């Protein structure tokens, strides 16, 4: 029997929400700037299409660093504690984002400008590598056993809030005259990160370490090299997470490629397209906890698979709506796909992945598996731009490509075990499939 202290699950979830919101505000303002501005100010202007392609590639570079960061921060989190990872990631992300706003342009310093841009994007990627895995591990290990999906979903709600902030802050910036936008306007969202990172740091410094990790410290059960234990005993689950995590391609296609395609190829206005992202993420804030509560009742796999298949279908409708130039259709389909259907996958994967691993390698398993999958997803805007070329009619090829990645996710999820009924202490044990979680009392304790 394990007792969950009343208030601690909520405190951990709030810390995960706030930190993830600020982390992903920083991470996604880069994507918005890459789609709207970076191709013009950091790369030679002789070929606009090439500049856009290179700018989107620098967005993907952040995902290259994430697997490397996952190995490093996964080790730190499983060896020395979840809290240390969460404090470090928010500081690193804040500093690197602020410095992006200080960079000189290509016209000012030549090739040094994109080199510095890529270097700072790599630091952002290192930070993001440990953020979600650390926050999800913290939330899962503090949560009541029959509400793990709900409490871990707060991390992804925070991610959506970060996307809202990242897109919303660019609404007035994108409306600026082109000269002002390209000279100083784009810098303001990056500089603003210095103000908000302090709040996340203070909140996370006050967070308690998880009971699971404290028991490991007391019992000396920590692995000296968690990654070695992970790949020796849980390599199949790591691979499963890698292939399941490519569902993040839906997010990168929606937030980066589709925005660039709409503005630069289909001729749609910047401001309405930014509003699609804002409204879809606002809807997601309400949808994610609802999907998570459903997953606590019926299991992770039905909700996860349903969301993935729905995204694979709706991506055709969304890119087709952009190609048609029908703003009403763009808003309706965009909100339905990203705000409602994609939220089903975001609500479930933090618990589904975390429940595959025991506590001693949980952060490493989640971080390494997700970040390799996310690295693949991070380059999908670049691949999509290459597929489409300069012909707007090629959106069908991009939709087929995205739907194929959704199918990869579905196969990976279906091959895994649904551990939603397994007690937290038994997670990661190969013989734990028959266990059932206890029922939570109104006061928050489990019996």
TrEMBL record:
Domain Major facilitator superfamily (MFS) profile: 12-421
UniProt KW tRNA processing keyword: no
InterPro entries: MFS (IPR011701), MFS_dom (IPR020846), MFS_sugar_transport-like (IPR005828), MFS_trans_sf (IPR036259)
GO CC annotation: plasma membrane
Topology within the bilayer: Multi-pass membrane protein
Residue stretches spanning the membrane: 21-43, 49-73, 85-106, 186-203, 241-262, 274-295, 302-321, 327-353, 365-389, 395-414
Matching Pfam families: MFS_1, Sugar_tr
Cellular compartments annotated: Cell membrane
Entry keyword set: Cell membrane, Membrane, Transmembrane, Transmembrane helix, Transport
MF-aspect GO terms: transmembrane transporter activity
Keyword Transmembrane: yes
Name of the protein: Major facilitator superfamily protein
């Amino acid at each position: 029997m394990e007792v969950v202290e009343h208030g601690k699950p909520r405190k951990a979830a709030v810390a995960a929400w706030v930190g993830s919101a600020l982390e992903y505000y920083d991470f996604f303002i880069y994507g918005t700037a890459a789609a709207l501005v970076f191709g013009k100010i950091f790369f030679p202007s002789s070929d606009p299409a090439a500049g856009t392609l290179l700018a989107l590639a620098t967005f993907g570079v952040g995902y290259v660093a994430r697997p490397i960061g996952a190995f490093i921060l996964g080790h730190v989190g499983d060896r020395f504690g979840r809290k240390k990872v969460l404090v470090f990631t928010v500081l690193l992300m804040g500093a690197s984002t602020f410095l992006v706003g200080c960079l000189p342009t290509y016209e000012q310093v030549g090739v040094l400008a994109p080199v510095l841009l890529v270097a700072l994007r790599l630091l952002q990627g290192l930070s993001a590598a440990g953020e979600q895995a650390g926050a999800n591990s913290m939330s899962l290990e503090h949560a009541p056993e029959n509400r793990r999906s709900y409490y871990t979903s707060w991390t992804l709600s925070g991610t959506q809030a970060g996307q809202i902030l990242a897109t919303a802050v660019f609404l007035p910036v994108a409306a600026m005259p082109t000269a002002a936008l390209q000279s100083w306007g784009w810098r303001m969202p990056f500089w603003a990160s210095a103000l908000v990172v302090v709040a996340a740091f203070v909140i996370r410094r006050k967070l308690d370490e998880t009971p699971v990790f404290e028991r490991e410290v007391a019992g000396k059960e920590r692995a000296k090299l968690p990654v070695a234990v992970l790949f020796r005993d849980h390599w199949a689950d790591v691979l499963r997470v890698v292939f399941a995590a490519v569902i993040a391609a839906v997010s990168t296609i929606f937030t980066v490629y589709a925005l660039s395609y709409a503005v630069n190829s289909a001729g749609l206005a910047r401001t309405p397209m930014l509003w699609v992202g804002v409204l879809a993420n606002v809807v997601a804030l309400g949808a994610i906890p609802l999907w998570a509560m459903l997953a606590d009742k019926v299991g992770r796999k039905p909700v996860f698979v349903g969301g993935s298949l729905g995204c694979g279908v709706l991506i055709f409708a969304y890119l087709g709506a952009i190609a048609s130039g029908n703003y009403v259709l763009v808003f309706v389909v965009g909100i339905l796909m990203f705000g409602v259907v994609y939220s089903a996958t975001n609500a479930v994967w933090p618990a589904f992945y975390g429940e595959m691993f025991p506590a001693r390698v949980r952060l490493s398993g989640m971080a390494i598996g997700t970040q390799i999958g996310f690295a693949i997803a991070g380059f999908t805007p670049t691949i999509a731009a290459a597929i489409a070329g300069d012909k707007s009619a090629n959106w069908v090829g991009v939709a087929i490509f995205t739907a194929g990645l959704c199918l990869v996710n579905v196969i990976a999820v279906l091959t895994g075990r649904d551990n939603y009924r397994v007690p937290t202490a038994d997670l990661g044990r190969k013989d734990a499939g028959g266990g059932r979680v206890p029922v939570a009392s109104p006061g928050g304790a489990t019996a």
